[in-house]
Write a structure and sequence with these properties.
Order of helices and strands: HHEEHHHHEEEHEHHEHHEEHHHHHHHHHH
Distance between the termini: 59 Å
Helix content: 40-55%
Number of strands: 9
Largest sheet: 5 strands, mixed
Shape: globular
């Protein structure tokens, strides 16, 4: 923007308009400089700064629209501590009473304590020789896998994944207790032989996707093998799953929704997806009329696209990308996932698949973060936010008592708010963009069982963010998969009101540990849509 010839001759309104344009151009320039700085870092051999979302102060809309408790209600007490405890030991404490005293019973005083000490067992397994000359050796007890017992393995997994402790601190703690162990052995306890846990985490995702009325999704930055990537969260009120990959594209998200399957399927759902994404009709015909409709893996699928001549087409939208997305969606549906499930997201483009709903907290946050420079703009912003908060409160009330009349009223109120002309140009453009998302934002009117926000996903993914801050990235694929699986299992246990300590004890065959059913069995019942 070039300066005017005569600044002194400008009116106050013209000076204000000039200042607003300068501030907008300054903001654009700062974004351009930041992008160029990252590009220079990449050209020098680095991977640039990871695309990690900043911590944005929440708007407070969810808390502010919660119904207030009636006046005069007393807070319920926490209950008796004694009723929640299992007494492991009774110990009588004598007293030196004077001669002639009479015993009047005893008083009870409960003390909770923790026993942590090194405990070394030398298992002497008997060996017998049968009359035929064969040597028989007594097997080790259940739960013994290697030279570290199940209780120690549970302790290490608990500290690392739920306690969010580093390997170095776990090593120092174990050595101070008296355990003779090396750092590489601690790492083996965390990642070696954990196939059963990873399988259970994947089965939790499969059951959740097959039965949930809704899932919320989110992602955050992650580092793996010194390369920037992304961790995607999928879950609802009953389960959580994490998957770390190198991309956050829609192709990547659809691949994750297959929940461990690797196939590509061209079925009716896949073809409908391709039509929705405006894939050329002649390309769809080639795929639809070919005798092969199922492909075992990506290599087989790519070879099929090349055989049909689709990879040679240089048009937009890219037919290979759209066809692959459609085949992935076909695989999702072929395995029975997302049958009538709403995917609620923060409006990130990669999550816009299937029956899609949007988070109201993120929508309102855009209005909240809008830069204002005049009193009129601040007043328009405050008025709009107040109207959105009220509509949000009404939508929350609607979820508890839906009705056709109330649905029509809320739809009209939505149109009134998001088609209003406030005179604040940037706000009016933002409202028009949000109004274009009307079907996703008002999805709750047709599906009142879904949430209005993705707060659950943001809460879940904080565990992954904390792990990233403490330990940085992962170095091996198995380390990445174990971290994602155990964080997901810990979150799922918390949602199912299960102790993660008890869960680990049951899976590691700790003696006298509580019995914990397989998590997929517990997830399936409450997740089934009404």
């Amino acid at each position: 923007m070039s300066p005017p010839d005569d600044i002194d001759g400008l009116s106050a309104a013209e000076l204000k308009d000039l200042l607003l344009k300068a501030l907008a151009e300054m903001a654009d320039m700062q974004r351009t400089i930041a992008a160029q700085r990252d590009e220079i870092a990449r050209l020098k051999g680095g991977s640039g700064r990871p695309t990690i979302k900043p911590n944005v102060k929440p708007s407070g809309m969810e808390q502010a629209t919660e119904p207030k408790p009636p006046q005069g209600d007393k807070k319920r007490g926490r209950g008796s501590t004694r009723d929640k405890l299992h007494i492991d030991e009774e110990r009588v404490i004598p007293v030196d009473a004077p001669v002639g005293s009479r015993l009047k019973g005893s008083t009870s005083y409960l003390v909770q304590d923790l026993v942590i000490r090194a405990h070394v067992v030398n298992f002497r397994c008997e060996r017998w020789q049968t009359p035929e000359g064969k040597i028989i050796t007594a097997p080790l007890p259940a739960g013994i896998d290697g030279h570290f017992g199940p209780e120690l393995r549970r302790f290490v997994l608990m500290l690392y994944h739920q306690g969010q402790t580093t390997v170095a601190r776990i090593l120092a703690l174990l050595r101070s207790i008296g355990i003779v162990i090396a750092k590489r052995q601690v790492m083996r306890l965390l990642i070696a032989g954990q196939d059963d846990f990873r399988d259970e985490a994947r089965e939790v995702l499969q059951v959740g996707l097959a039965n949930a009325a809704y899932v919320t999704v989110d992602d955050t930055g992650a580092r793996h093998k010194a390369v920037n990537g992304f961790c995607t969260q999928i879950g609802n009120a009953h389960f959580t799953w994490f998957g770390t990959t190198g991309s956050k594209s829609r192709l990547n998200f659809l691949s994750l929704l297959r929940a461990g399957h690797d196939d590509y399927v061209v079925n009716d759902e896949a073809l409908a997806y391709m039509r929705q994404r405006a894939l050329a009709a002649h390309v769809i015909d080639r795929l639809a009329h070919h005798q092969n409709r199922c492909f075992a893996d990506q290599a087989a699928w790519n070879a099929h696209l090349e055989t049909l001549g689709i990879t040679a087409l240089a048009v937009k939208p890219d037919p290979v990308t759209i066809a692959t997305e459609g085949a992935l969606w076909g695989s999702v549906k072929a395995h029975g996932f997302l049958p009538n499930t709403v995917i609620v997201s923060d409006d990130a483009g990669q999550f816009n698949v299937g029956d899609h709903g949007l988070c109201w907290i993120h929508a309102e946050r855009l209005v909240h973060k809008l830069d204002t420079f005049t009193d009129q703009q601040r007043a328009a912003q405050a008025t709009t936010r107040a109207a959105i908060w009220q509509l949000y409160a009404d939508l929350k009330a609607y979820r508890g008592a839906p009705s056709p009349e109330r649905k029509a009223t809320l739809t009209a109120e939505f149109d009134r708010i998001f088609t209003a002309k406030t005179g604040f140009v940037m706000l009016d453009r933002l409202l028009a963009r949000l109004h274009a998302n009307k079907p996703e934002l008002l999805k709750v009117l047709d599906r009142p069982e879904i949430p209005l926000h993705t707060n659950g996903s943001e809460n879940d993914i904080r565990a992954h963010v904390t792990r990233r801050k403490l330990s940085g990235g992962t170095r091996s694929d198995i380390g990445r998969d174990c971290r994602d699986a155990f964080l997901a299992l810990a979150k799922t246990c918390a949602k199912l009101k299960l102790s993660f300590w008890d869960y680990l004890g049951a899976r590691l065959a700790v003696p006298d540990a509580a019995i914990v059913p397989l998590l997929p069995q517990l997830v399936i019942a409450p997740s089934r849509p009404p």
